[in-house]
Design goal:
The complex is a heterodimer of chains A (123) and B (375).
Chain A lengths: L13 E3 L2 E3 L5 H9 L5 H6 L2 H36 L20 H16 L3
Antiparallel strand pairs in A: 1-2
Chain B lengths: L1 H9 L1 H4 L2 H20 L3 H14 L17 H10 L3 H12 L3 H5 L4 H6 L2 H12 L4 H8 L6 H11 L4 H13 L1 H12 L2 H4 L11 H18 L4 H16 L3 H25 L3 H4 L2 H29 L20 H13 L6 H26 L2
Helix pairs in contact in B: 3-4, 4-17, 5-17, 6-11, 6-16, 6-17, 9-10, 9-19, 10-11, 10-21, 11-12, 11-21, 12-19, 13-19, 13-20, 15-16, 16-17, 20-21
The chains are: A mainly alpha (123), B mainly alpha (375).
Amino acid sequence: MTPGFGSGRNIGHVDFGGSRLAYKPTFCDFYSLMIDFQTGMQNIVDGQGLSIAAAGMSIVFSALSLISIFIALLPHLLRALGAVFPEATPAPTPVRAAVAVPDDPAPAAAVAAYHAVQVRGAG
Amino acid sequence: MDLLIEFLKTTGFATMAWGNLLMIAIGLIFITLAITKHYEPLLLLPIGFGAIVGNIPTIPGMALSVYDEGSVLNYLYFGVGQGVYPPLIFLGIGAMTDFSAMLSNPRLVLLGAAAQIGIFLTIIGALYLGFTPEEAGAIGIIGGADGPTAIFLSAKLAPHLIGAIAVAAYSYMALVPVIQPPIMKLLTTKKERLIRMKPPRQVSLRERIAFPIAAFLIAALIAPGSLALVGMLMFGNLLKESGVTDRLAETARNAFIDIVTILLGFSVGAGTLTQKFLTPESLSIFGLGALSFTIATAGGVLFAKFMNLFLKNKINPLLGAAGVSAVPDSARVVQMVGLQEDPHNHLLMHAMAPNVAGVIGSAICAGMLWSVMVK
């Protein structure tokens, strides 16, 4: 058994071809004892961890790359589509004749007074 | 007198365990953080109060706690346990999200993919520590920095870990402003942090309407397991962008998401019953969650630097950190770190692109993991 890849049962010694050598228990060994888990690289192999990680990253990159390509092409697609189905232009709204507003300072003064009351408090 | 003694034996004071007290204290800390520090208050406050409610000792024979069949809390928890609430939350998020930043700069979508490395390296770490592949998948998704996605996948793969995973995911999301900046600064030079991005272009209405439909088709066809999450996200966005369902969009992004957030947060908190929650496995999940966030942030930043090797118009690598899909917190962190270097370099709009791409990416990862690990 290699130190650091222990099952927790052999803490305090390690077997190398029958000879027992003492070694310092690692965090993983204590961890295994603490929560009754078997830590080690073999778990990653058994759980196909590397395959899942490689496949997962490939899938997420493929999906988002496709979305990215679609977004990049979208303006061109819509331009081509626009030639066949032109975008409906909104009906022009009647414009009112501009009315000159007298430059009266009273409303502005009223707004400023209201604001001052709101900010400083009525009292 | 005997009746009184019998009654006193059933009170919470008599049956309270130290673990319950500890969880109640944690609930109080969450509430305090939400109120005083404004750390994800919409979630930490309901989770915190839920933790207090869920850790009051109950009377044997009475259906009171989350885990007692037929109790009120058990019915509320159904939405968590069966993964009902997360897609509903995604509907509201979709109705809130403006994808314009992403549509104007599609290259930034890839940063949302790169940050998902945190999920997969954490899965390897969890397997190493002895978790089963299903548990490892549910723990790894914490790196997606997306609470609803984490709850959804845990409900499907490892329902017994939902409490720990949800609390870890939301705690780290709340801590994004603390966790991310040191990693971002460590992995970038001052010159890189000063890179200015080109202003985003105007995106047409037709683009904004076509995007949710096409993105859903691409994501769901590649990873059908992501159908519920991506489907609801894009449906919500279509409600918003179509311009003809304003009432529905308004409801989805206000009252609807608020109701589901209340139910989700409270139920998750109430599910943190000490006997189910305070276990050594939960401590491992918190450790792996921190690792996951760190790797995800580093992955996004390093991939932005990698992209810069080939790009004429360089990307500010800080944007990579926003690939961690804590919306909009990680985008805000990018803005904050960018402003520290140059008070006139506003990166928030640009950071929203990898941020929302990260949401789609983590939902795809969840769908992929579910389909790979489902028995």
